[in-house]
Amino acid sequence: MIDECTVDCCVSQTQPEQVHLSYIDDPHTSMGVTWVTQNKVPSIVEYVLDSTKISVNGTVSTYTNGGWNGWIHFVKIFGLQPGTRYKYRVGDGQFWSKYFSFATEPLLAPPQRVVKIANIADMGANMSESGANMESLKTLVKNQDVDFILHNGDIGYADGYQGQWDLFFREMEDVTANIPYMVNVGNHEIGVIGALGLPVGYIHRFQLPGAHSITDDLENLYYSWDYANVHFVSIDTESTIDTTSFTNEQTAWLEKDLAAVNRTKTPWVILYGHRPFYCTGPEECVYNRLMLAEAVKIINKYKVDLVFSGHRHNYERMWPIREDGTAVHTYTNPGAPAFILNGAGGNREGVQGFGGHQFPGSVVKISEFGYGILEIFNSTVLQYTYYQAGTTNVLDQIVLTVDH
């Protein structure tokens, strides 16, 4: 039935919309820009450097399953100057978006400056649920108070309906057009959608670093990248039948990737995926631990510092957890990764409680929508703060200290 209906992407026949940024290579000198138009037109980013307008051309593509009607534009900009804010617009040479701006990564890294990152997951396009968090993100971006966003899965809750992607990115444009938006897949991007042959918009709507970040292999969508003194690792925890999965291919890649990390250059290693390694809740929380056991061995072997997840629609902070599942009751040189579950971005399914299986390594449980801010101070100290949605009220905060 979904293939029989036409879903137009855009409000206007001519204006670009749904602009979003992402890191595609070296964040010091490059930027990816993506947007959507109703018709197939040229893909041009025009940015301004010292009053000079510079144009960069890109590619355009589409997909039609699900009845979606529109065109997606991808431009990769290289040769940028580090630590520089650029004004830019997107269009076809005749019709243009309004001006946005982006900043490349500065050459200075912690402790010469503080890196600040927003973290969300499970955020839908229903403004009654996600609107407060969206407003918080818009304020952070307007004030140029964060470097980029990590959104680890369940992006807009399209579930195969392509118009939901369009709605979500229109609502988020003031955020995503002005700050890099780094994502990975959740079950509402893949789930049974891929198994039933329904359209998986995720693999058409993003450009991300690495050969496996965007492919047709829906159970192996992973990538890694460096920013400042942090090595970030994005994993795919999803299967096309809406269960937790971690393939042999991804396991081999993860080990190879972490073995190659230069801990002098990037002492911090932060991993993010959708489904949690550990959580309090239904039987699925126990199942996750079984399915992700091989990944747990690897992240402990290579001393990953911090792991973000979502999926459960609440906030839960765990102690650092050893490979055998025992908790280390300190955040000072714990010798094991710390785990933070923040799936409280706001969505149509509402917040969830903490009934069911109780995880003994859990420290804090909050059933309230909110957003996280990660601050990297230097090579040994970082801080994560969980704020109430729509406010700056602190609901939880930790300081993690690791003498790398």
Structural category is alpha/beta
Strand content: 25-35%
N-end to C-end Cα span: 55 Å
Given as residue ranges, the uncertain stretches (5+ residues, pLDDT < 50) are none
Radius of gyration: 20 Å
Overall residue-averaged pLDDT value: 95
Helix content: 10-25%
Number of strands: 25
Strand order, biggest sheet? 16-17-18-19-21-20-22
Q: What is the overall number of helices?
A: 7
Shape: globular
Describe this structure in words.
By secondary structure, the chain is α/β, with parallel strands linked by helices. The chain has helices at 127-142, 162-176, 191-195, 202-205, 248-259, 283-291, 293-301; strands at 7-8, 17-22, 31-37, 44-49, 52-57, 59-61, 68-69, 71-77, 85-91, 100-103, 115-120, 123-124, 148-152, 155-156, 181-184, 223-227, 230-234, 268-272, 306-309, 315-318, 338-342, 362-366, 370-376, 381-388, 394-401. It has a seven-stranded mixed beta sheet with strand order 16-17-18-19-21-20-22, with no helix packed on it. The protein starts with 6 loop residues before the first strand and ends with a strand. The relative contact order is 0.13. The model has no long low-confidence stretch (mean pLDDT 95).
